[in-house]
Amino acid sequence: MRDDGLDTMVAGVRCREVLAELSDYLDGALTAERVGVLQAHLAGCDRCTRFGGEVSGVLAALRSGAAGAPELAPHTSERLHARLALVMLK
Amino acid sequence: MDDAALLQASAAGDTRAFGQFVHAHEGAVHRYLVIHAGPVADMDDALQETFIAAWRGAATFQGTESAKPWLFAIARNVLRHLVRRRVGEPARMESLDVLSASASIDDLAIDAGWGCAADETLLSDAALARDALQAAMHRLPVEEREILTLRELDGLSGAETAELLQLSLPAMKSRLHRARLHLAASLRRSELASSRSDVHA
Lengths: 90, 201
Prior knowledge:
The complex is a heterodimer of chains A (90) and B (201). Chain A is mainly alpha-helical. Chain A has helices at 15-26, 32-44, 46-65, 74-89; strands at residues 9-10, 13-14. In chain A, strand 1 (9-10) and strand 2 form a beta hairpin. Chain A starts with 8 loop residues before the first strand and ends with a helix. In chain B, helix 1 crosses helix 2. Chain B starts with a helix and ends with a helix. The interface between A and B is large, with 43 and 50 residues.
């Protein structure tokens, strides 16, 4: 098995476990008790703390930049409303 | 008026209410369609068919809050019909990332920068710029792009996303987690490639 450091134990929790629960942690989907356990790990683990901040930053940038797809072009919207106007007349 | 009230009025024939509803959601539905199908020529058709179906089916909306999940479900159906119509056409190339779709969470996390030295900057502001994020999103498998769009951009709840994608809540969470790490890994990979080309320039 490779030695990638993911089995490092800090405050009774392995880094691997923190990574597995990172999304739930960021989404506030963990129990208060579990949050306390992970926070104790994070307080003593620079690697997980930096990584959690990194993922959190990526998601914040994604949300603020609306980077998923190009904006709706005005002519596309105009054609949509024109067609709907016809359909709604029927 | 909220979505439920607008759709109730639409069902009673109020075209102005439906116009207001369309204005509120056309951008999100368009994004949803592009994320799924790419900027194809019949995107206008797909967008129009989605809202025509919404107009005709307004009375079937049962929700009390946002109608986005309901609209996205209609858009999914419209796309299925379009795909059937396109049978015989060459398949669209899916975006590909170097990372395998079956990479483990551990591998994704390491590729995304877990374990980097403290003095190693992970992602610069440039790496998180809109264009870079867009490019990274398009390198993801379509189902990961879809779930990130629904959760991060459209703000659907976990339960709404799971229902729309016909996944259990744990399966939805697992896909979302993988998609987030995959996105971070994809951004990091681009940043590394860019810094290497700067060095060799």
